[in-house]
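Progress note, project year one: complex with uridine-diphosphate-N-acetylglucosamine.
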Amino acid sequence: MRILSVVGARPQFVKLAPIAHALAGRAEHLIVHTGQHYDELMSDVFFRDLDIPAPDLNLEVGSGRHGAQTGAMLAGLETAFIDLQPDWVLVYGDTNSTVAAALAAVKIHLPVAHLEAGLRSFNRRMPEEHNRVLTDHAADLLLAPTDVAMQHLAHEGLGERSVLVGDVMTDVLYSVRDRVAIEGTDVPEGLKHGGYYVATIHRPDNTDDPTRLTAIISVLASLDAPVLLLAHPRLRSLADSAGIELSAGAVRAVEPLTYPQLVAAVRHSRGVVTDSGGLQKEAFLLRIPTTTIRRETEWVETVELGWNALSWNPATLADTVRRPAPAPTDATPYGDGHAAERVADTLLAAPRPVGA
Ligand code: UD1
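Model obtained:
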């Protein structure tokens, strides 16, 4: 069986790693990179550090507004799919690369499987929310990470196409956590274990309004311990054009970290402040308290279990970050670290969808 994975943005490379390993020797696995993320630290280092085979094809689409970026992917992916004739197209998460691949495939009657199906924020201002809903409804097989995701899919009439496989990011996180512990990967220089925060901000709702971005940076600058701000290129370019200095007060703005460096940095931190989806969950799995600068989260389990708190208003952000430590938990809402094997089993056993 020939399975073609389409990836393009940083979180998708992390999810691709355990899938590539689980499919090795069991199926012919091809990788197409759309080129949505292209900086070395946003793309290449993930293939290197997570031992992912180099992409068979890179469309080099690059940055652009949603329509131009997604449209360029659609055209390039259609040609790639016609040339490569996969039995399954596997798409990941919720980026523009995800929806482009799902749409390109379904139009030419290729079976599509969506990994990380069923997540919902119910916030229609987020591009990721349109991408997930459209992808789930286009796909033939929905590989869901959690019970809550399965419930959302059932509610939208998609229950019959859905399979609960668990969360593949848990697979990667556990293996990299063990690796960095053995290798002794340490925290960045000048920081003490338990004596700093890790922060990321990249969502348009937080970065694109200079007044809001200034307010968020000011709160981070006033925190009671150093803040390692891992600056996404989107954050850097918007801060530069608005004349906002990121490295102020407690904040130390640095380049994005590699995945093993990120896991080590979070694991030894006092807390995480973020608007990233993946990082909320990674911090929970490492049992590091997190504050999420959003109104809602797709990973509701992290909030219900007390390890994540939502904080939209910059006026209350500092108090939320400094709240008392949560109660310990041994809950495993994101699975056992073997989700990728279930994905491989499911794809290899799946009948070819009707009409494909
Ligand atoms: C995308 C995803 C988001 C995911 C995030 C992870 C969509 C709609 N959003 O957001 O879900 O959480 O990736 O990082 O697909 N840029 C560079 N170098 C790069 C990549 C981006 O400089 O390698 C800059 C460009 O100026 C670009 C901007 O970042 O315009 C935004 O990149 P884009 O891929 O459109 O969206 P992200 O904000 O990264």
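The mean pLDDT is 96.
The CA atoms of residues 293 and 311 lie 5 Å apart.
No further modelling is planned for this target in the current period.
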